[in-house]
Design brief:
The chain is built from no helices and 11 strands. With 121 residues, it is mostly beta strands. A hairpin with an 8-residue loop joins strand 9 and strand 10. The protein is elongated and about 50 Å long.
Length: 121
């Protein structure tokens, strides 16, 4: 059973920085991709950033140049460094991993429980 846990959320003033971490537990096989979504109150859950097992990254336009996604395979963690935070970044941030176990041909997406990020103006 794969479990993901986010940490690092909190309250920060506009222009500040936070670093979110996602820690995976359980046996992981052939991780195809991992990343972060966020969901603001009353809004849909939107993709923020992704990174493949090969290190290819992708960012939403709203965070490009401010956020950086990275991974540490040895520790089964990946992070989201958030700089120059804006009030519109306020949301619950969810990490995910797409895992392909040997007995399946398609990957399964596992989600963390979410961590609150609040940016004050």
């Amino acid at each position: 059973q794969v479990q993901l846990v986010e940490s690092g959320g909190g309250l920060v003033q506009a222009g500040g920085s936070l670093r979110l971490s996602c820690t995976a537990s359980g046996s992981l096989f052939s991780i195809n991709a991992m990343g972060w979504y966020r969901q603001a109150p009353g809004k849909q859950r939107d993709l923020v950033a992704t990174i493949t097992s090969g290190g290819i990254t992708n960012y939403s336009d709203s965070v490009k140049g401010r956020f950086t996604i990275s991974r540490d395979n040895a520790k089964n963690t990946f992070d989201l460094q958030m700089n120059s935070l804006k009030p519109e970044d306020t949301a619950v941030y969810y990490c995910y991993e797409d895992v392909l176990p040997p007995w399946r041909r398609s990957s399964t997406r596992y989600w963390g429980q979410g961590t609150q990020v609040t940016v004050s103006s």
